[in-house]
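Database export, one record per block. Field names are fixed; values are copied verbatim from the stored entry.
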Amino acid sequence: MTDMIKKLIAMISGSVPEGIALLFTRVALAGIFWRSARTKVEDGSWLQMSDTTVFLFREEYGMPYPEITGLLATYAEHFLPILIVLGLFTRIGAAGLLGMTLVIQFFVYPEAWWQTHIIWVALAGMLIVRGGGMFSLDRLIGHKFG
């Protein structure tokens, strides 16, 4: 019985199951921020920030220079999830989204830690620590260039 358990643990601890788990982690984290990004732009455009976004950054979020901070958030929420889904510069992209999460946590919605932000931090942290995994462009490039 012990040998069977050890074999099962070895099987699910391999690089393929880890790669699948990291792929799902990448898609989950990227999806959260991508959906948020799409609410910040004009319908039918890719990156044209809406007037509502500027209003929210000024009035609800209390961010300084809402035209600039809104634009930076909009671009980051589009660009970083694409990198993360592709598994390209995964750790850098996840660190960027972790930084955004911490800004949101401390300056915008400090009451949302246990409901939401702890999950985002956990997902980003996992990608920062483990990287993109087997099914990522990081791995492909790493193998190609040694």
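Remark 1: The chain has a mean pLDDT of 93.
Remark 2: The radius of gyration is 18 Å.
End of record.
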